Amino acid sequence: MTDLPRLQLLECVLEAVSVGTVVLDRQHRIVLWNKWMSRHSGWDLHRAVGADLFALLPELRGGRVQAAVTQALENNFSSLLSQTLNRSPFPLFSNPAAQARGERMQQAVAVTPLALPGVERHCLIQLTDVSMAAGREKLLREQTELLRMQTFSDGLTGVANRRAFDVAIDREVRRAKRNGSMVSLLMIDIDYFKPYNDHYGHQQGDQCLIQVSSALQALLQRSVDMLARYGGEEFAVILPDNDGQQAMHMARTLHARIEALALPHESAPGPVKHVTVSIGVATLAAGRHGEVAALIGAADHALYAAKRQGRNGIVAAPDELI
Ligand SMILES: Nc1nc2c(ncn2[C@@H]2O[C@H](COP(=O)(O)OP(=O)(O)OP(=O)(O)O)[C@@H](O)[C@H]2O)c(=O)[nH]1
């Protein structure tokens, strides 16, 4: 240890630390304002010391900082201000460029009562720049969201993928059983898609899948309805709270929309020379104890019946299947 007087050493430390340090007396007058505060606020020591904090920074009046200062001075309580409520209570800037952009520093603020011998209680406000950590946190949140989207959406069409479908159908069937409500399922398959690919090429086949899926998606108005790519050229639509009639109505609407798209399909074996779909419809009736597999099986069965009947049509599963 050097011979440096202890007070002088403490002063040096106070000016060197990367923490904003402000001490207020009982009347909210600033008695200490360190270099960090001057650097990030633009107000030097002479302007700050002696001033009432809430006169100097009127925007702090009536807010959480004033409440915390009162708690410290009146009740001897420490507070750590939550960053979720206000990330930047003080008008501080990490650097001049951020100040020019009007981008405030994100702050962690701690307010602590100071019991000084022989004088009335003071309070210490400590401020830390957490902008970098907050930035990293934001990036992490964005990456997590992107990952979630990639995990649950189909890379080609952007609609929900098979994994998302599996989760959703399970959830909706359980919800229907719990509430004694219904849930319907449509299985939609593009007809003669292999000859389409063979004739127009795989890339055009991909475009066809994109056009069909976005046309279907555009018709689902309720947020609870879900279109998913079930596999290859097969799509599924979950319709919570829809009975067989409502599901049939939706199937006809979707079918007609694909007809109206009139995407050319020169190599289709039949007389119809545009892209068509076959649809199987199944409903889990209220009060029945059908399982997810039974509902999917019934919709699939109905879809293959539609294929057998010549394609470009809709078949509903008989009630007793589920
Ligand atoms: N372009 C493209 N083709 C795909 C994709 N996924 C599956 N397919 C093709 O879809 C075709 C499906 O053919 P099939 O299952 O024989 O059925 P289909 O020719 O549509 O005949 P039906 O369903 O009986 O009317 C196959 O040729 C697959 O290669 C994809 O992501 N992109």
From TrEMBL:
Location of the GGDEF domain: 181-319
Pfam family, one: GGDEF
This enzyme's EC code(s): 2.7.7.65
PAS domain segment(s): 6-76
GO molecular function, one term: diguanylate cyclase activity
Alphabetized CDD domains for the sequence: GGDEF, PAS
SMART domains: GGDEF, PAS
Reaction equations catalysed: 2 GTP = 3',3'-c-di-GMP + 2 diphosphate
GO biological process: cell adhesion involved in single-species biofilm formation; negative regulation of bacterial-type flagellum-dependent cell motility
EC category name: transferase
Cellular component aspect of the GO annotation: plasma membrane
NCBIfam families xref list: GGDEF
Protein name: diguanylate cyclase
Lineage of source species: Bacteria, Pseudomonadati, Pseudomonadota, Betaproteobacteria, Burkholderiales
